[in-house]
Structure formats: structure tokens, C-alpha cells
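Help wanted!
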Amino acid sequence: MNILAMDTSTQVMGVSILKNNEIRTEIVTNIPKNHSVRLMPAIEQAMNLVGLEPKELDKIVTTIGPGSYTGIRIGLTTAKTMGWALNIPVVGVSSLEVMAYQGRFFEGYICPFIDARRGMVFAGVYQWKQNELYLVYEEKNISMEKVLNKLKEDGMPVLFLSPDMKIHEGQIKEVLAEMAVIPEQPHQLIRPGFIGLAGSKKDPASVHELTPNYLRLAEAEAKWLNRMKEK
Amino acid sequence: MNKDIYILGIETSCDETATAIVKNGREIVSNVVSSQIKSHERFGGVVPEIASRHHVEQITIVLEETIQKSGLTWDDIDGIAVTEGPGLVGALLVGVSAAKALAFAKNKPLIGVHHIAGHIYANRLEEEFSFPLLALIVSGGHTELVLMKEHGQYELIGETRDDAAGEAFDKVARMLNLPYPGGPHIDKLAKVGEDTLEFPRAWLEEGSYDFSFSGLKSAVINKIHNAKQRGENLKKEDIAASFQNSVVEVLTEKTYRAALEFEVKQVIVAGGVAANQGLRTALMEKFAPTQIPLSIPPLSLCTDNAAMIAAAGMINYLKGKRSSLDLNANPSLPLS
Ligand SMILES: [Zn+2]
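Answered by r_m:
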């Protein structure tokens, strides 16, 4: 079972090849912008390193968001089109869920988040119990303040994971003090190997129906809906 | 002896998700366009983020229909051509990502195509080119005069310095409260109106083939505003006719002068505004006394489509021009 996993939903880009759920290669960059330039060459390189031809792939797993709208579309379009052309299943996984894989051995809540500007984040709360990952609070486009207040109420230790930690670290420590665990940067980035692992547990959707999970309406659409409500 | 060449084209530079297969650069095998006009209507124009969202939802559906309708298999396809620019960057990226994925998965040459080259080559799906050739490209995003001395070689001799012609049409249509897209509505009103308002014609400097439509747009606003203040009511039909005549006269005259100066053997008109009846009629009348053949493709090939990208991509393919897997979308890609 050869799986190609990819992620371009944040400023981190990741590509991995897994054989029977074992990582054979991982390529990760943490360079803002231009995922479009790097993704396909990275896929080609990963395949060459492992000595795989595209037609030998059995499955593709990609993140479908939340995250950067453009980033999500680059990864998802690449995965969908490759999957369709090769006639193999494509699985979409949440970028936040994959981040929560970094907290595999953390006892307590895990709060992966991605900055969504103006005090907002895309965030969810997860927890590992008996080797399974559970969703505690569903993923939302929500203010960081609300997330932190809720977690404070719950009183559990929380592991925070995010490629955008710098923006929110101060506020997290201020509200949660020692309840918050913030690891070093190498733990924060989405690891593409985990995307493959997360995808291996999910059933593929129809390639045509696989769409991004932006967690947020396009701005023009939200404004338009507001205008309709006012009328 | 010579094998037929099939190019698959992908076009997502604005609000149409389009893919097509073209044989030998001249014959459409299959051509699928998924239009988003309905989604953008309520906003009165194309919203880039919404366009991009549609593209990613439509792209594999459109590709599948294109392959199915063609009756071809992947073995038959010789190359993947894609619009790399200009256009909306987020929208372009969907097409570019899809093209690269196909090129890699199916081990086919990748060919980046300029959107304007595509519009020009839409004509070759109807009629073979004669060089030197002059192309007038008029759409919501473009107003350009391009001189071609041979296949795949483009010389920009004039372009708009502000609004594109189609953009001016849309803006004036909005002033007149006409539905989006406004161009066809203006055209219809203009047919029954009269050019009574004497709007300016922007000829610019002597000998220039550039265009400018922002002054005209302001003149229309002022005319409507002043009339309102005087309590007069201008007829919508007359505003439409006066505005359209100003645009058409400049487009026609500059195209005519350029055609004579460069002694071209063919004039082609491309882009969405090429569907405008007023423009078609004026150009045909202007060129009728000359020996220069004028070609305007059918409406379905004037607006954005992927057959034109495949047709232009065929020329790059024959010239051995290939793009690599690090191809990026370039929203301001220069022609040539
Ligand atoms: Zn166009």
C-alpha cells in the first residue's frame, strides 16, 4: 500500500510517501508563499527517492483545511487531479487534526490552531484516549479569547500546537498560565507522515466531492448574506 | 506518416472553469466550460475568492467530461497546456496545479500558455492564419492590439492605459442599473438609441495605438449627474448608444490604422467584447472596402474557454517550449 501524503494548508509545506503506514520519506519546508512552485517538484523528488512511479501509488491523502485559502486549494487541486488521473482514492483530512498527532503522548487536551487574523483562529480541541484521537470541541473559526476562556473553565492541561504560535503565545500564557504547554517550534509544524497515518483510518470520498473546509465564508458572500438579512 | 497531435488545455484565469482537447491546434475534439456567471451576478462582478472556490470544486468534473466526450485515452494525449497568466492569481493557481498534477501523473509535457495568446488562437479553430496578422483583443480584462509575423510570436503594439473596454461596459451598465454582465445589455439598448450625447473619443497622442476609457467613463457619469441636477431625464438607450459609439469608433479606427500601417494580411478580433454587435458591424463596414479579411470567432470561442489554450499550446509544443513542474501562476505575465 503506497500512500502519497501532502499538505500546503499553512506556511509549512509537507510531502510524504508511506508504505504500509510506515514513512519512507518526508519533505518539509517552512517558507512562506509559493507553495505552488515547490509542491510538485517535492512530490517528484519524494517519489524518485523511494523509487516509485505515479502508477504505483495506491492512495493520496491531503489536508483540506482549515488554513490559507490559496494554500488549501493548491494541495487539494493537486491531490484531486492526481487521484482522478491515476484512478486511485483520495482522502481529505483536517489540518488541525493532523497537528494533534504531535500530541500523541500528551495527557490532557490538545488545541491545534491556525491564525485567522484580527484575533481570530481556526481551532479545535482534541484528546488522545486509549490510542485513539477524539474530537472534544469541533473545529471553528473563533476568537482566541473565547477558546482560552473555555479551556480555562475546563481546567485541564492543554497542549497548544500551531505554526502561528508566535502571534498567540503571549495571550495563551496570560490566560492559562501553567495549564498551557507550548512546545518548541519543531513540534509545532504539521508532519506529512502523520497526514498519511490519519488518512489511512478514513474512507475516501468521491474525488469530485472532495472540497476544501475553509471554516469561513468568502468575505463577499458573508457581506451579501448580511445584506439579505437586513432586508 | 505525421501523427495527429492532441493537446489538453486548461483555463481558469477568471470565472470559467474550462478544459478542452484540440487536435493539431485546429480542430476541437471536446470543449467543456463551467461558467460561474450565476454565482457572481449577485455581487455585480467577479469576486476572486469565490471564483477560486468554484474552480477547485469543478476542475476534476470538467476534466472528466472533457476526456469522456473526446473518446480518447491518455495514450492519445501529447501535452497538457494551461493558462499561466495573466488573470486572477488564486483562480490561475487551480488550473496550474491541476495541469502539473496531470503532467506528472501521466508523464506528459507541460506547456504554459499566455491567456491573450489563447484568445488569438481561438480564431485558428475556425480559419488558418495569414501573416502578418493583427489581433484586437477586447474583453473585461483586456484591450490590446497585437501584431504577429509568425506563429507564437507576439508584438504588443497598443494596450489600454486604464480600464479594459469590457470593464468600461460593465461600469456604465451599473450606472444604468442593468444586470451583470452589462455588456450585452448596453449593446441591446444601443441598437435602439441615438448617439446624441457627444461623449469624447480618446485618441491619445498622434500615432498611438494605446487606448484609454476612464475619461469616457467619467464623461458618462458627469452627463448623467448634470442631467439629474437640471431635472432632465436622459434616455438610457441614448446613453448606451452614445457610450458604445465612442468605444467602438476608437477601437475600429485604431485597428484600421494599424492594419494599414503594418500591411497585415488578416485582422482578427477576440475576447468577450468581440460579441458586441455594434463593434462587429463597425469593423465589418470599415474593412469591407479593403482587401484585408476580418475574422471574428463565434461567441462560444470569444469568451474564455480552454480550446483556445490548447490551440495556442500546440504552437509552443511544436516549438519545443516546455514548462517545468515549478511552473507558477503569474497574474501579470507579459505577452511574448
Ligand atoms: Zn479572456
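OP: Thanks! One thing I noticed: The pocket of zinc ion is lined by residues B 115, 119, 139, 141, 271, 304 (CB under 6 Å).
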